[in-house]
């Protein structure tokens, strides 16, 4: 005699619980992989935004240093630099020992914000 439902039955009985267990385990593994993928994508987006913030700071800092070298940087004046990734506002104030405190306010095109303070030495004339 031939067995008709060999997929659902075996010699010891009904095999559907084993099949349901395998389907459940597969579903759990796929769900975990999808959650890991979503988490990785969110981390990648945040890392890209952090790189953009750091790039904006470096470009603005280089512009401030160039203006200090050319002696065109004025204290307590708002300098606004528009770059591709966003906008940086730099405000300088004179500190002791010919040091300049420059406060940077960085805004990216994705509305991320960051504030930094950097001390630089004024070049001697």
UniProtKB/TrEMBL annotation:
Source superkingdom: Bacteria
Record field: transmembrane: 12-35
Keyword Transmembrane: yes
Keyword set, alphabetical order: Membrane, Transmembrane, Transmembrane helix
Name of protein: Competence protein ComG
